[in-house]
Amino acid sequence: MGQETGDMLQELLKYYHSNKMENLTILKIFREKFLKSIVLLLVIFQFTPGLLFSATVSRVGVAVSNTSTANTGSITFNASSTSQLIVVGVNGIQSTANFFTTNNLLINGSAASIGPDFDGTTGLPYCVMFYFVATTTGNHVIQWDWGGTSTAQEGVVMSVAAYTGVNTSNPIGNTGGQQDSDNNFTTGSLSASTGDMIVAHAGVFGTASAASWNNATEVLDVFFNSEAGALAEASPTGATTVSADGIGSGRDGTGCIGGMVINHSTSFSGPYIKFRGKVNIRGIVKFR
């Protein structure tokens, strides 16, 4: 086999160097008793071209929600063994700009990255999404400490979900969203490709009602006091605009949305050349 061939060549090279020969010419292979030379050499080179393997982002388990009127607190989220990315969406209304992003959202004591960030314009609901590459499985403690000392007017709605098939070295692509006084909110066009997933969190300040999503499928609706929030997902094949309509109505109808593209993972194998062969030599090997 290939190992046998390699061993034989190694021995020939050792012999060549030990005898300080300047030229390795023809190997003369004789059978015993000076019969005809005979050599059987079978060598096979197998070429395998490079292959690109592409995963598809998918949610692992069930998305969960949390509601709270406290400025500080924590919840525990259980991430399965295949979870690669944890996504957290929050919405609420407050008179302090950057209410959700002044301090870090912590996951297992480490700061989560900020995705779409729409909490800068006061007088309108805030929507922010965070993400965290999961390096361990099991329970993950999500800890918040919102900005300022005043609480959100109607509390905060939070959604949490985990995903697999993610490019963990570059997990997030395009992000988008808005704060708006209308009752329809859009992410704008998000560049994406097959295998990616778009995740969006929307919220409204008003009497809760069921959300109607465009180009996305609702995962959960959460109602708390006069604050409504919802999470949705989309599996794009190209640039996609996600919007939510009718999340809330009545008191106000102002709202917000944040959306982001989770990049799918790819891996490359090859190209490579595999050596396969068998060498069978009988007789005496001589150099000259």
Features:
288 residues; 2 domains; 6% helix; disordered C terminus
Descriptive overview:
With 288 residues, this protein is mainly β. The chain has two domains: 2-50 and 271-286, no CATH class; 54-267, no CATH class. Helices cover 6% and strands 57% of the residues. It contains one helix and 23 strands. It has one helix at 2-18; strands at residues 28-30, 39-48, 51-54, 58-68, 72-79, 85-92, 106-107, 110-111, 113-118, 126-133, 138-145, 156-164, 172-180, 184-190, 197-208, 212-214, 217-224, 227-234, 240-245, 248-262, 266-269, 272-281, 284-286. The protein has a five-stranded antiparallel β-sheet, with no helix packed on it. The protein has a five-stranded antiparallel β-sheet with strand order 13-20-15-18-17, with no helix packed on it. The longest helix has 17 residues, at 2-18. The radius of gyration is 32 Å and the shape is globular. Residues 20-47 and 275-288 have low confidence and may be disordered.
